[in-house]
Design a protein that fits this description.
138 residues, alpha+beta, five-stranded antiparallel sheet, 3 helices
Length: 138
Amino acid sequence: MGKFTDNMLTRGRRPQWRDDGDCYEASGRFILDMDRNPKWSGYPTEECILVHGRPTLQRPPYIKYGHAWIEVPKLRLALNVATGREMICSIENYYQAGQINPEDECYRYTPEEAAAMMAKFGHFGPWEGVEAVPPKDE
């Protein structure tokens, strides 16, 4: 299980923020389909978590923004699957680079909870916190 390493943040490059990003949809689809993806065969996909949080933009204007990613707590990995690219690093490096407060700025969902929230709200999120988008039928 040791084939993944911190592949961006430890080499001095920072993820780019995009205002046309698809992080909520990409992460939502990923968490629902992860156990069917042969690339992840043998990994503890049943323990993966969808996270909606608020990292800090790493370039001016350095503001907090809504974002979604996947965590594999058993392996201490964070996966950013937005915009069609997978970026994998340690959870600790991900939170440090994004200046994310895991206690106050993150909402975590198991695959089952994420599926229920998607069904309830009619979209991929965010569903809670300051970035929350109301259900489609409101």
